[in-house]
Amino acid sequence: MKRFFTIIMIFASVVYATAQTMTMDECMEYAVKRSVSVSKQENNLDNARINYKQSVAELFPSVSAGVSASANFGRSIDPETNSYTMVSTFSNSYDLGASMPLFAGLRYVNGIRAAKVARDRGYSDLQIARDRVAMEVMRAYIDVVYYKEAVNIAEEQLSAARKTLRQAQKLYGLGLKSAAEVAEVASQEAGYDYMLTEQQNKLAMAYIALREVMNYPQEDVLEVVQIDDFIPDVCTVSPESVVESALAGNARIVSARLAVLESKLNYMKANGGWFPTISLSGGIGTSYYTNFKSTAYPAFGTQLDNNRGVYVGVSMSIPIFSNLSRKASVRFSRNALRNAELEMDAARNVVESEVVQACRQMEGYGKQYIQAVKKIEAAQLAYDGIAAKFDKGLVTAIELQMSATTLLQAKSDCLRSKLQYMIEKRMVDYYSGVPLVEFE
Prior knowledge:
Layout: H1 2-18, E1 20-22, H2 24-34, H3 36-57, E2 62-72, E3 76-78, E4 83-85, E5 89-103, H4 107-173, H5 179-214, E6 222-224, H6 239-249, H7 251-271, E7 277-291, H8 300-306, E8 309-317, H9 325-391, H10 397-431
Parallel strand pairs: 1-6
Antiparallel strand pairs: 2-5, 3-4, 5-7, 7-8
């Protein structure tokens, strides 16, 4: 038995040593770095960067080179005499050309500007993805902290109930308590034992949920830091100032604003399709020709030099009819612009509502915490008094249970208001411009 106990203690020590204890900020940072949604948004941002570089490159000349070779058997044209011949011949050519747009209705310029805005919006969308993951982790972390403290409260109540049960059994032996009263106290003790088991199960589920949103291995042990030194203070915050800060710099508002600008530039780019396109092109080429029966043709190098030619040209393409594709493109881009403007208004309304709600709830939970602390003090005094009377046989077990339930509810309300205040305070700071997670 002693050896078995030693093995259990060693195993528990190993588990505790490998357990990783993390603060809420560390959990949020861990989750953001390993989030699938954040990684996807990083890939989207990389695509936006590539698209911007590609849009800029469209203004540069496109250069191409070509080589061709052919053998003719039978009737063909002799390039030397420009007459038909029946001799088998061989010819090849070499060319190097370049072309670049001079004017395209500002389509390329607006395309570059739209791609740049899309790239900038990608940074905001990445921040939005990070913030969402951080918020999920924050709430899951608070749930774990709540249920850890709820387990402690339930253990305290169970310990007090067991002490009361032992006292009731002693009083029963002295004839000061009836069997019914002892049974009532035993029922209370069983109820608190059940409540402890229930809170322990909820704590285990909260840990599972936290590890899930963190993308943390479920088989690894994770411990969170208790928030014991945090004392809410009732501070009055002006929702108007927080709303102003949020509408100026919140990532969702910035992304929506950039989406409107990008849609406007795409609309201007689509309208550019109605204008002519002017292009500049130029190149150099040469060729070689011979037949298989004559050696009268100049040598390969001589022909390449003699047949070399250079060309430069300007072309203009005027759009007349393209199966309504340009008209459809303009209408699509115009509707996209209207939708972006609607999304912008919706984002402003949502953020403003969330800010006002966070400010009001922060103040409300702060006041509730102060009242809950006073309620605990009063409930504790009442419970101690009733417990003392119960020990003397002056009150019934039902009165003791009612007092214990009131004390338990007061502790639970105080804990809940404290943690809820912490969440809302963090959200108010976030909308005021303080990031949830710091990144370099």
